[in-house]
Amino acid sequence: MNQQAPIETAPEYGWTWRHLGALLAANVALALGPLLVRLADSGPVAAGFWRLFLSVPVLFALAALNHQKVRGFPAPLWAAVAAAGLFFALDLASWHVGIGLTRLGNVTLLGNSGSLILMAWGIIALRRLPFRNELLALGSALVGAAILLGRSLEIGRETLAGDLFCLLAGFFYAFYLILAQTARVKLGNWSLLAWSSLAGSPVMLGVALALGEPVWPHAWWPVVTLAFSSQIFGQGLLVYSLRHFPPLVIGLSLLTQPGIAIIVGWFAFGEALTPLDGLGMALVAGALVLARASERR
Fold first, then answer.
1. Which residues are CB-neighbours of 209 under 8 A, at least 6 positions away?
2. Is residue 1 part of a domain?
C-alpha cells in the first residue's frame, strides 16, 4: 500500500518585544566591537586575544548554568572543537588586522561575508544549481564588493589590504561554522563558545607575538569592554533571541551593524562616504539579507 509522504510544516516563530530588543541590542554590541579594537592600546590581534581569554570563565559558567556538557567528550569531538577554535581565532585575527586598515563600514559588511561563503559552500557540496535568491545574493555581493574594493584602492593600498583581510576573516568564519555544526548539537551554544574561545586564545596570542604587537595593555577598559560586549553580552543576546525569528528578520537585523559602524566611523574617525560607497554597501547588505533569508532553520 502506498503511503502518503508527510507534509512539511513551516517552523513556527514566536517573539515578543523583549526578544526583538535583545536581537537589536546584540547587533549594537557587536557593531561597537571594531571601535573598541581601535581604542585598545595593545595591538589589534592582541585585543582579540583578550576578548577571548577574558570571556572564558564567564562562558564556562553560563554553560554550567544552562546544564550544557563541558567535559568527557570523545576524541573526534575534541578534535572538531579544537579545529573550530583554530578557525575562530584566525577569523578574529584577520578581522582585527582589517579593522586597523580600512573603514569601519567596510569592516562590518565584509566581515559578515561568512554567511554568503557558507551559502556558496552548501551549493557546491550538494552539487546543485543555485536558487534564484541565491543567485541574486551572490551577484549582488560580487558587484558590491567590487565597488567597495575599487573605492578602497582609490584611497590607498593599505585600505584595500584591510578589505581583503576582512574578506579573509569571512572565509575563516565560514569554516568555523562548518566545523561547529555537529559540535553545537552535542555540546550546546555556550559550551561550544567556551571551548572554542579557550582553544583560540593561544592561537591569537601566538599571532600577536609573531606580528610584534604589544600584548599587555596600559588601559584595560577597551579590552575588558570588548570581551564582555562582543563575546558575552552580544553573543549571549543572540543565543537568547535568534530562535524566535525567521532568517529574513535576522538578516534585516544585521543591517544595524554596518549602519552603526558607518556613523561611528564618520564621527570618531572622519570616514566620509560617497554615493558610490553607499551603492556598494547597499548591494553587499542586500546580499547578506538574501543569504540569511535562504537559510533553513
1. 215
2. no
CA-to-CA separations, 65 to 47, 55, 140, 165, 248, in angstroms, rounded:
28, 15, 42, 37, 31
Question: Tens digit of pLDDT for each residue in 61-78?
Answer: 998 998 888 887 788 888
Cell of 272: 566620509
Question: Does 142 reside within a domain?
Answer: yes
| Continuous H helices in 104-226 | 104-111, 114-126, 132-155, 157-187, 189-210, 221-226
DSSP 211-243: TT---S-S--HHHHHHIIIIIIIIHHHHHHHGG
Does the residue 5 lie in any domain? no
Q: Is 283 a member of any domain?
A: yes
The number of folded domains in the chain is: 1
Question: How far is the C-alpha of 85 from the C-alpha of 199, rounded, in Å?
Answer: 5
Over residues 85-89, mean pLDDT: 93
Closest-CA residue to 63 (of 230, 174, 204, 197): 197
pLDDT tens, residue by residue, 169-193: 988 988 888 887 777 777 888 888 8
d(Cα 272, Cα 257) in Å, to the nearest integer?
17
Nearest to 155 by CA among 1, 272, 45, 282: 272
Residue 184: closest CA among 295, 68, 88: 68
- Per-position DSSP letters for 31-85, written without gaps between them: HTHHHHHHH-SS-HHHHHHHHHHHHHHHHHHHHHHTT---S---HHHHHHHHHHH
Q: What is the pTM of this model?
A: 0.86
Angle at alpha carbon of residue 14, lines to 256 and 179, rounded to 5°: 65
Give the range of the structural domain holding residue 157, as residue numbers without chain letter: 17-293
The Cα–Cα gap between 232 and 237 comes to 8
